[in-house]
């Protein structure tokens, strides 16, 4: 199976309007910049986006929001995006806020083929509304459903043409979990190498999970919040 595609445009070419996407990254670290830019250019509409965050104004998923391409956002943190806030308050955007650990575990459950998991996070809060509660060993747990994701779009530091991936530092948070969970997983990498060039002991995502891979270009790697101390 030839998994290598020419570029981001080719990788996302068949993502239809109305699709459910997982987008890897943590804040602005390790986000699939090239694929997001291609989705903006492609104009795919009514997307349900599952992501740790909603990007920022003018970058990341923020670009899809500004272009009115997102119908629903499922995230654990959305505090850096004014356009997200505007669309939420105006009723233009459907939002599901999920505790961060729950978001990660639901991604993992999808990858492992588990239909649901039981978690304590959110019990007794608005997060629990409409969800089944079960008691185990005297403690109450919420039943959280695994995600149903059409595509997972991730960004890795290095990958080989078989789809094996290595993530770097903070980018390792959500990318490996989401790479397991997509019916079709698309990986963009900073460096694409031949099979056998990656140390098997350092691979975070085996190629069996990856369906398309390409070497990305022109990564901005923005810093979400830059803080410097004042000079004396």
UniProtKB/TrEMBL annotation:
Database matches in InterPro entries: 3-oxoacid_CoA-transf_A, CoA_trans_fam_I, NagB/RpiA_transferase-like
Supply the Pfam families for this chain: CoA_trans
A Gene Ontology molecular function term of the record = CoA-transferase activity
- Record bears the keyword DNA damage: no
Record key words, sorted: Transferase
Has UniProt tagged this entry with the keyword Metal-binding?
A: no
The record, for PANTHER family, names:
ACETATE COA-TRANSFERASE SUBUNIT ALPHA (PTHR13707:SF60), KETOACID-COENZYME A TRANSFERASE (PTHR13707)
- Descriptive protein name: Succinyl-CoA--3-ketoacid-CoA transferase
